[in-house]
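On clarity, I found the account of how folds are encoded harder to follow than it need be. What matters is that the chain and its backbone geometry are given together, residue for residue. The format is easy to grasp once an entry is in front of the reader. For illustration, here is how one protein appears when written out as sequence plus structure tokens.
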Amino acid sequence: MHNRYTLLESVQSPADLKRLSRAELQVLAQELRACVLHSVSQTGGHLGSNLGTIELTVALHHVYDTPRDRIVWDVGHQTYAHKVLTGRREAMAGLRQQGGIAGFPRREESEYDTFGTGHSSTSISAALGMAMAAKLKGEERRVVAVIGDGAMTGGMAFEALNNAGVAHGGLHADLLVVLNDNDMSISPPVGALNKYLARLLSGSLYAQAREGAKSVLKHTPLYELARRLEEHTKGLVVPGTIFEEFGFNYVGPIDGHDLDALVPTLENLRGKRGPQFLHIVTRKGQGYKLAEADPVKYHAASGRFDPAEGFPKAAPGKPTFTQVFGQWLCDMAEADPRLVGITPAMREGSGMVEFHKRFPKRYYDVGIAEQHAVTFAAGLACEGLKPVVAIYSTFLQRGYDQLIHDVAIQNLPVVFALDRAGIVGADGATHCGAFDIAYIRCVPNLSLIAPADEAECRRALTTAFRQDHPVAVRYPRGTGVGAAVEPALDELPWGKAEQRRRTTRTSAAGGPRVAILAFGTLLYPALQAADALDASVFNMRFVKPLDAEAVLQAARSHEALVTIEEGAVMGGAGSAVAECLAANGVAVPLLQLGLPDHFVEHGDPAQLLAQCGLDAEGIVRAIQQRYGSRLTVLRPVAAC
């Protein structure tokens, strides 16, 4: 460890923070910020949000008795400092790497990670459950939920606030919600007055005076007048009226980088009973000038970088699927004025920056509110517009009821552009798009296209947009094979597969004739495997409607079939093929390859695919194991 981490090295667990003075905590925060910046520069990962919560993390672990007291971090983008302080400083070298620690909290990783998170707006619900469990079990502990202002846009957060502010069986939860506001859009200037108010409103003198006045005035006509006077007086200086209405005692806003404000305020709040709400204001990228100047760019690092130089400029290369979508969205919007684009707070991640610039009146960022995004699109479609919802595969899971009830049942022409379908890599199980094929193909009226490459992705999006019913197009994170993308807005033949390779086997003497039915980008490793085995390959393209004619043709002209998809095998595209064969009374051996029945963890995407047996060598190996040694390998996969 670098010698600039002298104090940090002495901290082996949060218990060691209890003995540090306020001045030493300030030094520790500086060392911790430098440690996090160095770690992320070596491994990649979320940067700006982590740099913004250094002082909050130090203060929470200094004041609260963790892990007995519970801290629930919303999303988990801001937990790197928490990991360092809870015994994982050396493990940060393997952050988000295969076999290393995760980029998000994980219960199996540490007792200090009280709740696993990866998607937003869940912390208050989970923390409330923990707080009420403590009440029911008669255990004395405090629970803290740390949630960002972005995550507070999610409806689930407000559902939890609504529930937390009321008594359950006569019991109020001893819960503190910390709103980490790093946008400053809802905050007044932070200074001495707000710091004073925070300490005053969280202190015992104010609370005693407040409760004493209540008891004296409760049965007099002056009670309601006093209550309203307090509410409106506080509302003049703090933006907390809405949280007070939910039943919380609101404190803040205070400077989230000022330990002299944070520590005493948290000490006061820890001693209080019932629901408490602390509003802090922080700055993303705090202490790292490049991240402070451009918090969007420095939200996360994709790989190693030199902190002195900042993120390297992206080298020109193959366009990503996200970029293909972004260009298509602009081109289609130019061609059709009915198009509107919707994102649940993922403008950059979903490739909509240019669309936002060019078509601001047709761009809608609804915040982290996936349910609303889907139903909002349904409302637009009812009025003759053509909504395109750009959403990650795992984020659409959060709007599944709306997908069925508000879009599919009404058969509305909404396009769902599903980014991050399949394995995502370093973000791990919470972001792995394993389930969209299974959860979409069972819904009536809803179609699903799985393009094999960049060129086909553009055509698939055009095809989906021109239908009069809902269609989803799934594509992976990152780049494909580099297929040239034509500028035209051409369509794919609806519901039709294409045969990309024919076997030259004329009999079963050298083994059975095998046909591989590939869905999505795994077409290319399937073609490599087919060259090695002399198998046929069909690029299926459409999961729903499935090209039954192609399936039956393959079954009748081959002795064995193989399906391959970068999605869950259970209920996936392979299952659709099996159902088609059964419905037509065709009995043929069928091998279904895809993601296994366990969550795929974080790591390098290519390595993870290989571990799942979905690279060319794995496909060859699986086919040989199923169909026996009679199926000879004609040439090594590496030579293809």
